[in-house]
Amino acid sequence: MSERAAAIAERVEAFVRGVVAPYERDRRCGPHGPAEELVAELRDKARAAGVLTPHILPDGGHLSQRETAVVLRMSGLSPLGPIACNTAAPDEGNMYLLGKVGSEAQKQRFLAPLVEGHARSAFFMTEPALEGGAGSDPSMMKTLCRLDGNHWVIDGRKAFITGAEGAKVGIVMARSDDGACMFLVDLPDPAIRIERVLDTIDNSMPGGHAIVAIEGLRVPADQMLGASGEGFKYAQVRLSPARLSHCMRWLGACIRANEIATDYACRREAFGKVLVDHEGVGFMLAENLIDLKQAELMIDWCAGVLDGGSLGTAESSMAKVAVSEALMRVADRCVQVMGGAGVSGDTIVEQVFREIRAFRIYDGPTEVHKWSLAKKIKRDWRQTQTA
After folding, report:
1. What's the confidence (pLDDT) of residue 116?
2. Domain 232-386: CATH architecture, name and number where available
3. Residue ranges of the Acyl-CoA oxidase/dehydrogenase middle domain (predicted)?
4. pTM of the prediction?
């Protein structure tokens, strides 16, 4: 680990543990995420502490993925940490995409406010499942766009759009005659109407997850991100690293949950000794250490591949499956070790369990990634047979 990343990670850890964690029981943390007032307050404190958007350097450069891994892990030590430090989804992934694909004018207009922590963003890709729209299979996209003079006109419906409520920057995916396209839009816009914010198992992300109707949205042609028909390629530019970033942040959350469960097990007495001395409990904590270390190593390996410029969907799929499933086991054991205390809101353990359960689904559920890997196995086998 580089000295600069270690120094940044140390500052982020101190800030999240010392400043952010006390806000975890703040009444402004609601069922659809922390309120905008709380987000602004936490970001002001992060800005003052010099840890706002810490993975992006003052000159506009980006930490390597291996460096980012340790920094985002520290930001994840509290469910509020990524929000405070501006390393949360979907903003972190959207910033990465804009940095890779956006024009200089687009970066100045849409990326700069995100990096500065003055705006939140939303990524409009997923569509209502029961209407046959795009989900894990983006080729099913029903939202359409057509060129009308020097504007594109977009119509469709989107679902599970994280942070749409309160976002100022939107990236909208739609299908033209050329294929998938991406557009940058200012929010709010009267043509993008939030129908409702869903009640979901997780609640760490501001704005929650919304169902959105897009009706006659007019976007200037120069706000298309990249080229018409290249949207799926750009989606992979965003989604492969974004899956890994989720792993980084939630690893931090599970490390903290395990710390809380360990402290409980070493203090709580039952049947004549502290819980950790009972094999049934001690072994669960030992298994947690194993899963946490394996998750850390998988993230580090995948980040190294990405830094080498050769990260594909297979590597990010393996990391998403391995890490999300390992962290689910960790979160579940933490709840079990703490018993009744583990299912109460007195600590973040209960929330971490809920968040990790949702993590196993978003950015592609485990089963879809395994299916994708199985297809690659078959494809690679056929190539060896014809070689």
Report:
1. 96
2. Up-down Bundle (1.20)
3. 122-200
4. 0.95
